[in-house]
Amino acid sequence: MGETAPIEFEGRAAADLLIGVPLYNNAATLGGVLEGIRAGIARRFPQARTVLVCSDGGSMDGSEEVFKNSLDPKLRMAFVSHLVLPVHRILLPYHGLPGKENALKTIFETARKLQVKACAVVDASLSSLNPEWVSLLLGPVLEENFDFIAPRYVRHPFEGTISSGIIYPLQRTLYRKNLRYPIADDFGASEKLIRHLLSRKIAEDENARSNVDLWVTAQVLTGQFKVAQSFLGPHVRNLRSGKGNLGTMFHQDLSTTFRLMEEHQEFWREVKGIQPVVTFGTPEENPPGISFDPERMIANFRLGAKALIEIWRKILSAETARRVEALSRTPENRFSFPPELWVRVIYDFAAGFHWEVVHRDHLLKSMIPLYLGWVASFYRENKDAPVSVVEETVEHLCRVFEDQKPYLLERWEGKGR
Amino acid sequence: MEAWRIAILDSFNHFMNRVITFLPNVLAMFTILIGGLLLAWIVKTLLSLFLKAIHFDRVGERWGLSQLLIKGGVDASPSSLVSRLLFWLISLITLTLAINALELTATQKLVAQFFMYLPNLLAALLILIIGYLVALFLSQAVLIAAVNAQLDSAKTLSKAVHWFIMILILTMALYHMGVAEKVLIAAFSILLGGIVLALAISFGWGGREIARDFLEKWAHKKRGKDAGSNDSHHL
After folding, report:
1. pLDDT surpasses 70 at A89
2. Is some CB atom of chain A closer than 8 A to the CB atom of B137?
């Protein structure tokens, strides 16, 4: 695998749009994704000079053949291999794309070289991409001068509870923008943003290597950029790399989130309030929900409270630890994780991570039973409610995160430790 | 009478000669003792300041050293304990050197033996400290992993790992110090063999039902996973 470098397109120097598709063993879905992109360009930007770049992490499932079969003489298309180190394969991220930061670097460097006005990145594992996505991700950048278009998928709040219960409310409180899906697999970016991300050494930054999707969002939200989000519809992926493991996902997302909090603490400690972002597209109603086994989750929480309380006491404040212990003794029919307690738990863990009160890996993994306790409570209290009501519960949780920010600041400064 | 006087004078001269010859050694001993103790005190103070500057106590707290000290009834922070340990080590070496300065045959032999043994003692101490930290880290990792795997016996498993490593490092440390090597190896082998045998018997005979339940649950879980259950909905 060679060094990451921009692709050379002979003959023509510049382009208007670039669509990048990072991929790794996505032969099953790549054809559909490329077809959707081509249709989207033909429908919405027929006159634009468009380039399509597939950046591959060393696929061995015939993805390149699928690409060759999808070649279109009306489009400039390239299939390039991005840098993948052995460590990328050993520590394969949950999204299954080794070296994604290098793929984005290749795409962005090509976009900069071609002086494109707008660039979109879409996931090759998608089976739900429709041609409208191209318009929704590139249109606001081209026509309304936005710098970053985040995805707003149609998902039930029960789907993606790490995002709904931790990442979204936390990012919203810290960085002031209500981007509903801050882990942006698919996004649109302006020339200005691309230059900024390249200047921040996307492929070398430790946090970008850990979770480039979260890193990009944090860079955007802490910079001077015009931000919006677009309703893209359902988000269905075919992960060939295997099913997601909760421990891995939780660890990768939370460790990056907490490290980004350290990186951007000068920003979030100062700012106050929320700046709602513009949302493009039309929301679809009633996404299908999913079911959990709350009894099993509560059992896991109780086991955690019994076995891990000594570790939790080092991380949580005395009052929070006492309340968590009391909660673990609550009868199942009255089990309810109060939002305010949940927020304090998150803030205590963020501050504990910052102060390294426990080995960071152990700290993050010991948080999983607490998270399962919250998910069980969230699910049981909302399982019969319409989606709009569940979404309002998430919004209420966000407001509790915002109200409790002084507590985070106290703990972050080491008070009560 | 003259002979008697000469005998006494000779004896006295001989004694004085010996005192005069020995006196510098005594002075050297006191100088080494005072200088060494002063050096030990300076090193202790500087090390204590350095450890406080690098927040060693916080690291000690994270690794469980502070808790261990509290459990052992030691009312001192890890940084203070380390600096005190170094103080006593330098003091001990100083004392040995001071005794050696007397140039007495018996003490010289003792000092030589002490210095030959010192590396073993230090290595054993190092093995104990590192081993304890490793035991603590791994037992905590096992505890968390077992809780996340929903094993009710998480605490027992974690304690078993902790004590297994502790016994192993204690054996290693004693072996390094040369304390009854053969007895130690035999005792450790018997202990380890005994544990394995006890587990084999309890699982194979006493815990047949539990073992069967465990395997059934495991197989069921595996089938469930293969059938498509996954955690990706959490993200």
Report:
1. no
2. yes
| Confidence category of residue A402, pLDDT binned at 50, 70, 90 | very high
| CA proximity to B60, closest of A372, A377, A314, A307 | A314
State residue B13 phi and psi, 5-degree precision. Answer: -60, -45
- Return the pLDDT at B187: 79
Q: Please tell me which residue of chain B has the smallest CA distance to A303.
A: B147
Residue A248 has pLDDT above 80, yes or no: yes
Q: What are phi and psi of B6, to 5 degrees?
A: -65, -40
> Can you say whether the dihedral through the CA atoms of A214, B229, A303, B163 is positive or negative?
negative
**Contact of A316 with A348, CB cutoff 8 Å:** yes
**What are the C-alpha distances in Å from A337 to residues A313, A369, B147?**
18, 12, 20
What per-residue confidence (pLDDT) applies to A117? Answer: 94
* CA–CA gap between residue A414 and residue B6 (Å, rounded): 84
Q: Measure the CA–CA gap between A355 and A320, rounded to whole angstroms.
A: 18
Count CB atoms within 10 A of the CB of residue B233.
18
Q: Given an 8 Å threshold on Cβ–Cβ distance, is B143 in contact with A158? A: no
Cα–Cα distances (Å) from A167 to A158, A170, A256, B48, in that order, read: 14, 5, 10, 41
Looking at residue A1, what is its pLDDT?
41
Q: Is the pLDDT of residue B48 over 60?
A: yes
With vertex at residue A178, the alpha carbon angle to CA A175 and CA A180, rounded to the nearest 5 degrees, is 120
Q: What is the pLDDT of residue A12?
A: 57
CB pairs under 8 A between A and B: 85
A195 dihedral zone (left: phi>0; alpha: psi -120 to 50; beta): alpha
pLDDT above 60 (res B226) = no
Please state, in angstroms and rounded to a whole number, the distance separating the CA atoms of residues A122 and A135: 12
pTM assigned to the model = 0.80
CB distance from A307 to chain B under 8 Å?
Answer: yes
Q: Residues A43, A46, A50, A54: what is their CA dihedral angle, to the nearest 10 degrees? A: 30
Look at B234 and A246 and tell me if their CB atoms are within 8 Å.
yes
Residue B19: is its pLDDT beyond 60? yes
